[in-house]
Design the sequence.
């Protein structure tokens, strides 16, 4: 018997409407269920794939820790491609989200940021490498054109003894066909 996957994360929040707007407008999650908005103890359930999972994120009104205590380490969301990741970076910038870091882990490239109430989250795209020892973390510039980004990732990975990503090379061969 083994755990198969993370099903959902629940967050206590101060401003349920503001947090719902952030996760729907910026990250593109869909509201799948919600209590009556007028209730002080409301809840909103969101999913990136509502046809497969009723909710992956539950926002619950009633946060009580306001002294800067650490409530979670991170919430990580996977997207399909580096192009999608670049798009999420633009959306996050437009929302005035505060960035923590943008890095390659070898196995993925991730954007770490804070939602409007300071919860750290990540949006990442897998690279296709599965055998990079963790933790591995190097800064990445997602603002450059895709070909330059791919070259930089290959260069960084190669310099650290990591073989070039098959997914990156498959991406390049798709571009040329």
Sequence:
């Amino acid at each position: 018997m083994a755990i198969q996957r993370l099903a959902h994360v629940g967050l206590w929040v101060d401003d349920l409407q503001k947090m719902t707007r952030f996760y729907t407008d910026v990250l593109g999650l869909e509201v799948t269920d919600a209590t009556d908005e007028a209730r002080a103890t409301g809840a909103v359930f969101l999913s990136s794939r509502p046809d497969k999972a009723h909710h992956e994120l539950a926002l619950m009104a009633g946060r009580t820790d306001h002294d800067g205590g650490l409530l979670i380490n991170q919430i990580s969301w996977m997207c399909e491609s580096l192009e999608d990741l670049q798009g999420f970076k633009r959306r996050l910038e437009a929302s005035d989200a505060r960035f923590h870091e943008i890095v390659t882990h070898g196995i993925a490239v991730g954007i770490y940021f804070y939602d409007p109430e300071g919860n750290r989250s990540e949006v990442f795209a897998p690279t296709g490498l599965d055998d990079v020892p963790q933790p591995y973390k190097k800064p990445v510039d997602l603002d450059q054109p895709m070909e330059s980004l791919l070259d930089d990732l290959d260069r960084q990975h190669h310099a650290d003894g990591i073989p070039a990503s098959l997914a990156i090379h498959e991406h390049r061969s798709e571009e040329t066909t």
